[in-house]
Amino acid sequence: MTPIQILDATIRGLPAPRIPVFCNLLDQGARELGLTQQAYYAKGEHVAEGQLKMRSRYGYDNVWSLFYVGKEAELLGCNKIQFSESGAPNVADFVIKDYDDIAKLEVPDDITAHPAWEETAKCLTILREEAVGKYPICAYLTASTTLPSLLMGMDKWLELLLTGPNDVRDELVRKCSDFFQKQIAAYRAGGATVLIYSSPFGSPYFVDMKRFHNFSLPWMKRDLEAGGTANVIYYCGMAPFNKVIEDVIQNLAITTHYISPLADLAEAKNIIGSRGLTCGVIDDIKMINWTAEETRAEVKRLCETGKPGGRFLLGTGLMPSEIPEANITALINAAFEYGSYS
Amino acid sequence: MLDDIINHYNEAVFDTDKEAAFEVIDNALAEGYTPEDIIFKVVIPAINEMMAIITKDPDANLAQHFMTAQIASEVTEKMLLQFKSPPEIVGRVVIGTAVGDLHSLGKRIVSGCLKAMMVEIIDLGVNVAAERFVDEAIAHDAQVIAISAMMVHSATGENGCRKVRKLLNEQGLESRIKIAVGGAPFRFDPELYKTVGADAWAADGISAAKTIVDLIHEVNAK
Questions:
Q1: N or C: which end of chain A has fewer CB within 10 A?
Q2: Residue of B nearest to A209 (CA)
């Protein structure tokens, strides 16, 4: 079976030789091509080539179309990204500096015509040519309730969210939700087959349950109502969210959940059951200092917890560039070994 | 009566209801409580209670942390203007985000709580070079350098906390100035603070305030 067939069978609860194994080696792509981060991320063909080489080298099941998280802010007017040779790029200039800027914020009518989308489109085209029918192509989309943190900074967004004015807050989130709807359609049309719905404000680690129900959930429904939830993975930016899994299944019909390493995986699997796919995620920050044996041991533990009953995927979180290559190899090899159903 | 005030204030803070929290404070002042009472008998106990809740309940959320600090900071600023005499300062901390990191939320939560706990804060902002952390700590006679890092490379990189440690070591300042770190990477690997050369870490902004105050006391005790 090809990786995409393994994923499809796993989602449907059908027999597969092993669990699907997802990995995200984003910044490592630049190193692989011998480019600076800025040069690497400037061209869609570089990102596609880097991701295909990473997948080929380690043998995991997916490829990524994500450049860096701040790319979404660029589509909404951000024109300064701070690159680093040792880690992920940062948004260095917030589009919203004061509340007046919210009224001025414009969501492009057609985001695929925006210059900032051009390289993403190139990347998707190459990935589609190389991976279609073989490997899932992942895209990363930020929920409307979280995107404001990329546009105005997390502390300013929390302040607006928690203290208002609520009409200004809602205007901003509505624009972000409009953007989300356009973006998910663009990614689907571009060939992305797995859509990571990044919604940290859909986690009880970020907001209380009352605010989750009254604020986050209605906006998440709006985000997803036009494009649907097919192949959408619920992800809260590494924050735990077991407490809302049931709500997400019932209200959003998202049945695939990317569980935080800080959460109880067995509990999550028990909640999701046979209704969907449970994704166990390794604590890859610890992988920086772990030995290969320690990495293997953790993969074994995750597989033993999540694999019984099937419908289990093993994934990674941040995969910092400081992780030794030997640990990445150990991770993937152990996932194939302990994730085998034979 | 004071217990009722504390309970009502805490309820408002935990509900992230800033307006209700200020109403409790205004009512307490109208009933004759002094600005000093408000800080030392309401706000600081509320922060301590939040720390206890976070310790017991890992699901205490970021919104509560943020509003605890935000309300505490604003109430403190307002009350300090009305103190009969300037309060005794517990100590000084130089705070900022590590070089290469532009995230300011954690720093803001820690600073809000520290302000209420009568710690003088020298806020260096974001993307702060190691040399500047040390220079400013010396210039202000600070007992603690607090470094926030939300990204793995800014938490573990050679130019962040590791370099601050190196500089303190080279200048013979390690007993006079302690280093505290915080931010997401440290939550995922609780041993990481040792790897990067910090003296202490905290899992969240509220607990970080206590960690920093403890370090100040440690330095002052020498």
A1: C
A2: B61
